[in-house]
Amino acid sequence: MAEEVKKDAPQMFKVTIDNITVEVAPGTSILMAARKVGGDVAPPTMCFYSKLKGSGGKCRTCLVEVAAGSTADPRPMPKLVASCRTNVMDGMVVKSITSEKVLDARKGVVEFLLLNHPLDCPICDQAGECHLQDLSYEHGKEETRYEFQRRLFEREDIGPYIQLHMTRCILCYRCTYIADQITNTRMHGILDRGEHAQISTYISKAIDNDFSGNMIDVCPVGALTDRTFRFKQRVWFLKPLNAHRDCDKCCGKVTIWNRGDEVFRVTARKDEWGEVEDFDGKTGWICNTCRFDKKKTSDWVIEGPRKINRHSVISANHYLDDLKRPHETIAEVMGGRKPKLLMDIHAVSEVNKPTVHLSEIEGPATSEVFNKENGRLLPETK
Ligand code: SF4
Ligand code: FES
């Protein structure tokens, strides 16, 4: 009987997600099928990481509605399901962003994830590339109903390169999978249960092995941060560049984050889902030597600018090479006069002069404040 079923089973399953039909191999999760469709249809994920075996099923961010289970059994599934942990069936119909229930549930999930997460984005090193920050903006509510005190932990240096700020951890388990799957020894895990659950090293043992830095890359929030980079720069002030070097431990293909000639940090290269990219069929995890010890531009062969695909402030205004500037008409409109005060205030105004006290300027410091022709005196000449 089982043989007959196998023989009759189609080679590829057709699944319709938000009215778009794709074909995927049997055994594919709804989430990976949705990523094949791409864009907003792909549910957000906070714990699933396709490169880490067994990940997913912890955060419920990826909930979807199954409107029809399969061609053979088209009944809808009674509850929303975690798309990272539910496999597609042939003829399945799934609703992601087209389902009111899903959008509402995502709001609830964000609220739950934020129960114990501090709203300290302005001082968090992960700001600008935090998946929880993105998730809250895209799927969260504007207000919180939570009135109780959040969990607080002391910051802990786990090894020479990584700092754990447990207060920000959302218990996604990704870092423990990294420890299990790509380092030789696992020295940390999740201790205790429920409200008391926390990441910790056993008997405060330091995490110190060649690939431990990858935990920083997979941590979706600012709970695990790079001690060689913490608070040195905001990520959106840095220029990400693809670079490589010959490394005998890892693929040596990285993104370096520069300001001028200075390399502020080195990370693995991430794809549009925020996951480490594959090279030659293998995940491009990078070793600690490349990540923490090679901080000179001359250590690297620069390949070119790195495009950051996620909707991130990091991408804003970095590379203007393909920007098409519109024809500038202001000078023509103004009879040949250059629009100095209007368009180039910092080159001509006194705002940057150390002798001018901004607090002494009446009203906002606009170009008018410094226009001597309108009869007003500059504060320094009073
Ligand atoms: S420290 Fe980061 S990666 Fe580890 S469980 Fe917490 S949120 Fe996830
Ligand atoms: S991403 Fe599916 S449950 Fe977390």
Automatic annotation (TrEMBL):
Write out the GO cellular component annotations: membrane
A Pfam family name for this chain? Answer: Fer2_4
- Chain ranges of the 2Fe-2S ferredoxin-type domain: 13-100
UniProt keyword list = 2Fe-2S, 4Fe-4S, Iron, Iron-sulfur, Membrane, Metal-binding, NAD, Translocase
Record SUPFAM superfamilies: 2Fe-2S ferredoxin-like (SSF54292), 4Fe-4S ferredoxins (SSF54862)
Which cofactor names does the annotation list? [4Fe-4S] cluster; [2Fe-2S] cluster
Coiled-coil positions: none
Q: Which GO terms describe its molecular function?
A: 2 iron, 2 sulfur cluster binding; 4 iron, 4 sulfur cluster binding; metal ion binding; oxidoreductase activity
Q: Which InterPro entries match?
A: 2Fe-2S_ferredoxin-like_sf (IPR036010), 2Fe-2S_ferredoxin-type (IPR001041), NADH_UbQ_OxRdtase_ferredoxin (IPR054351), NADH_UbQ_OxRdtase_Gsu_4Fe4S-bd (IPR019574), Prok_molybdopt-oxidoreductase (IPR050123)
Which superkingdom does the taxonomy of this entry point to? Bacteria
Task: Supply the PROSITE patterns for this chain.
Answer: 2FE2S_FER_2, 4FE4S_HC3
Q: Where are the transmembrane segments?
A: none
Looking at the record, the residues that make up the 4Fe-4S His(Cys)3-ligated-type domain are: 101-140
| Compartment annotation | Membrane
Family, per entry: Belongs to the complex I 75 kDa subunit family.
From the Swiss-Prot or TrEMBL record, give the protein name. Answer: NADH dehydrogenase subunit G
Q: Report the source organism.
A: Segetibacter aerophilus
